[in-house]
Amino acid sequence: MKNELTLSFLAIEENEALARMAMTCFITPLDPTLEEISEFKTIVSEAVTNAIIHGYECDGKSLVTIHATIEDRLIKMTVKDEGMGIFDVEQAMEPMFTTKPQMERSGMGFTIMESFADCIRVDSTLGAGTIVTFEKNFSPVTEVSRMR
């Protein structure tokens, strides 16, 4: 099976839930386990939240764009913003690093994404935005996985 989706939405916090639900519906034909759904939703949520809060500072005018493809049991997805960009990607990916401590941000977004994705890449340019790309393989459907 091969499928493709592009979704763009305003950079407002309410749209994080929209992105999470739309992407969950997109992977439904893979018949993922509950654990896979939970992990995938978390990755989407973290990537989109970073774009809204850190890329655009919740400006409510700019767009976040998700592009995803499914081929066989592999999903490849990018979350793109054209916002502020990340000064130091390596530092931003360190556990507990945050540029928004006043917002009670934990600094664990990239760490969480890395733990649930099979592969993650972050490309960022100051003043031009950030693209988070990840891949996740979904397990083959079996009778045992259907019961989870």
TrEMBL record:
Its EC number is 2.7.11.1. PANTHER family: ANTI-SIGMA-F FACTOR RSBW, ANTI-SIGMA-F FACTOR RSBW-RELATED. InterPro entries: Anti-sigma-factor_SerPK, Anti-sigma_F, HATPase_C_sf, HATPase_dom. SUPFAM superfamilies: ATPase domain of HSP90 chaperone/DNA topoisomerase II/histidine kinase (SSF55874). Keywords: ATP-binding, Kinase, Nucleotide-binding, Serine/threonine-protein kinase, Sporulation, Transferase. One of its GO terms (biological process) is asexual sporulation. Pfam families: HATPase_c_2. Binds to sigma F and blocks its ability to form an RNA polymerase holoenzyme (E-sigma F). Phosphorylates SpoIIAA on a serine residue. This phosphorylation may enable SpoIIAA to act as an anti-anti-sigma factor that counteracts SpoIIAB and thus releases sigma F from inhibition. Belongs to the anti-sigma-factor family. The lineage of its organism: Bacteria, Bacillati, Bacillota, Bacilli, Bacillales. Residues 35-140 form the Histidine kinase/HSP90-like ATPase domain. The gene is spoIIAB. It catalyses: L-threonyl-[protein] + ATP = O-phospho-L-threonyl-[protein] + ADP + H(+); L-seryl-[protein] + ATP = O-phospho-L-seryl-[protein] + ADP + H(+). HAMAP family: Anti_sigma_F (MF_00637). This is Anti-sigma F factor. It comes from the Bacteria. One of its GO terms (molecular function) is sigma factor antagonist activity. It is an enzyme of class 2 (transferase).
